[in-house]
Amino acid sequence: MLRQSQVRLVRTFHRAYTEGRSMVHQMIMGSGKTTVVAPLLALLLGDSATLVVQVVPQALLDFTRGVARERFGDAVLCKPVYTLQLERNTSVDARLVHKLRTARDDAGVVITHPTALKSFFLKFVELMKDLEESFLTEESSNTIFNFGGWMGKSSSNELLKRRHAELDNCVAIMELLQNQGVELLDEVDLILHPLRSELNWPLGKAVPLDLGTDRKAGNQPSGLRWRIPFMLLDGMLSAYLDTCPVT
Fold first, then answer.
1. DUF3638 domain: from which residue to which, for each copy (predicted)?
2. Of 6, 115, 125, 214, which is least surrounded by CB within 10 A?
3. Secondary structure (H, E, C), the chain
């Protein structure tokens, strides 16, 4: 049996979805948000034109997936349940696009966690940055005076083709999520917390910090950037101790 509060909440969420609005609701532990409300919303919102993506903290991924498969595993409420796992080294290939499109066409539910989604978005940014840098490098090397840049061009072209194909797959997934997808966020206070949800992913080549090295000393890590704080400390300590600083 469903509680009256759960029925009202599901109707409120469904009305907000039909009106094109996002909605957040706070529920106490044990009120059935993962076992009742989320499966009902996935049942109502998921059809052959809408992809339902349920995002949960990584610690709750197995539990949420088990609940979804238990709810949608019978012959009456039969829905396929998929898992989306992505990391930095994961290749965004055509199989992933096909998997998400199949989940949409079959009115299935995709269970994932925030790190996987952020990894996908950062992978998208990384691919665009790599292709932009390769395009600028290719423009600078395609001159009549640059003969060394022609060596190894075939291997770089193959890499660029793979990058382009991967970027096309990212664009297809982005269009699917933005235009034909709906997200159900569980434990939204953890998922969207500005300090707990950070995912560090450095991009580009490693370059020295400004004023971090001393060119006269052979690019040793003794640049002005590191000497300035000690000079300031010397000034304060000399004023406090009434001595002459030695730098």
1. 1-152
2. 125
3. CCCHHHHHHHHHHHHHHHCCCCCCCCCCCCCCHHHHHHHHHHHHHCECCEEEEEECCHHHHHHHHHHHHHHCCCCCCCCCEEECCCCCCCCCCHHHHHHHHHHHHCCCEEEECHHHHHHHHHHHHHHHHHHHHHHHHHHHHCCCCCCHHHCCHHHHHHHHHHHHHHHHHHHHHHHHHHHHEEEEECCHHHHCCCCCCCCCCCCCCCCCCCCCCEHHHCCECCCHHHHHHHHHHHHHHHHHHCCCCCC
